[in-house]
Request: fold
Amino acid sequence: MHHEKISELPVPAGGGWGNGNLIGRAQQVTVSADGSGNFRTIQAAINSLPNEATKPRTVYIKNGTYREKVLLDGKQNIILKGQSEKGVVLTFAQARDAWRCDPVAGQDDWGVATLNMRNSPDITLENLTVINSFGFDATGPVTIDCPTEPTKKKTLSKTGHQMALRTMPGTTRLVVKHCTFRALGGDTVSPWDVDAGLYYFQDCTMEGGVDFYCPRGWAYAENCRFICHNTSAAIWHDGSADQDSKTVLKNCSFEGDPGFKLGRFHREAQFYLVDCTFGQNMADADIYWAQSGPGAKQWGRRVYYQNCHRQGGDFAWFKNNLSAAQGAPKARKIGADWTFGGRWYPKSGKAATVPLKPSNLNAPDRYSARPATATASLSGGAVASAAPAPAASVDSVAERMLLYQRTVGGWPKMVNNIKVKYDHAMTVAEEAATRDDAGRNDATIDNDATTREIRYLVKAFQTTSNAAYKAAAERGIRYLLKMQYANGGFPQYYPDLSSYRHQITYNDNAMVRALQVLRDVSRRANGLEVVDAALVAPATTAVNRGIDCMLKTQYVQKGKLTAWCAQHDEKTLLPVKARAFELPSLSGMETVSIVQFLMDTESPTPAIKKAIEAAVAWLQMVKITGYTVKDQPDAKQPKGFDRVIVPEANATIWARFYDLNTNRPIYVGRDSQPHATLAEIEYERRTGYAYAGTWPEKLLNRDYPRWQQKWNSNATPTLGRKQ
Reply:
């Protein structure tokens, strides 16, 4: 296993992992998109930290653009600190309406934003730009398949809800300094825990559409800039769980599109605006009750201003009225510590003097955009419950696959070092724990993960007509499209690109299997004809890019095309090392599946034909005749057998790895040293890894001759030499 380096930074306050180790030190891991840090992605760095700690841990993020969705789930005491606010850009495109179309993940907002937090207290964000780019990227409305809609279709607007930051219950005492949050749609900054939410914003910029700053609970914003792209409202508040809940904005500025309104509320709310400035083009409209909500019933209208001014002249409605607020507070006393009423002292650092109500984590999602029950309008204007749709048939294996699907769309191969299996019933506790793991950063295409689930789920959909299975498969396909590099290669994991996971991975045929799924989508074949037709064009493009990558990664040895390595660098495309026993080398196994994929190309180009002929010639050249590999009984060995290469007449095998310069077979154990024979490898690896096999046999004896006769009959016959 690869172990990431953890930096120890002495600080007066101390620190630790929360498990008793390294107490007295603050922990820091570094993220850098160029690979110069401990991790390439923010999510991978977060995942490396234990959930609990008594002191803060810092994820230091170097300048760069990070195109990923980030989730903090059950984490505490973490500081996400960028090198600079403008230099560190976390960006992801996610329309909330599209998220709601997923029958599984879309049940709530977990994962709907670029930066998501749940049950993660004491988090600090500093020097970051967080963008939900959906509205900026979209050229106009787009209609998508939507299993949760009665019509099965949904039209997405450029200005619909788009969250850059979304916190769910249990994320309290959130500190945000020198950060920019941008979206074109509504709810850009959504810190939502009406029972126990405590949020502090300082020197931040927030930009979006309707209600783009919409805290629930207690929130304080100081020296912040608000930019509104909607005429309905810029700010919003929900303080319905506690009469003392409030949103305070001090020394903040507001600007936006012509006619933008300052704010509104749907539920009980309490606003304080002190020393704020408003743009000249702001509408002459006070913060108002939006009548589509339950409104203020218990505590009345509570909107207070002090020393606020508008460029071009003040409006009467924001005249000073602090004296009308509870306790008639003086403006000089209105600050962060005052806002939270003893529950939290972010400025002075004192211990809380007023107990905080617990977050109601297990309550139904009061913030859900999806109604709890469907309704239908009757001719008389009354509303009645719609008849429930008949229950779809279920497939027990597919149901478990839904549970294991990660927020990003892919699936893991192992959880807690245990291989994921779908053939046994799960207890209620196991299901709950698996569902809670949705935000894990362990989605991969290694060992058939993700591709096997996609193929099974489309078959299950065809058998059961259960739309949830098709939707999950489509999310998996979109995951494959998302993880592909611009040069056509696929990493082993995504978005966790730590260690060797970022390399273009032919190992165990991972990239080939991903491309085979996408090729079937593009051809509408092998069961994948049932998925969203909108996936055909991007899948076709992805396959073409993948083939281009294959042609460019084929190794040139002394001016001659040969074969492929198990891993290639995603930038230089050269062979690279992965695990200790996987050195840069030519592969007698992975080359076979690449050739078979290329042979399946319709109307192959001259470049594809050349690549196939060269690889087949190399496989013929490096075959080892007169030997076989077998597991030989040996009672003295731990497993009761030993794996050996022994002479056998008329047998042919190939080595898994060949030297890049000499084409000689190499055998490498955990010492990372090439050896000339399998017998030199330690027993654990010798019997636990495939160092030799007959992988090219069917290709050379059947598949290639058929292909050559059809597509390249004029080519020079490929003859090999005995070794």
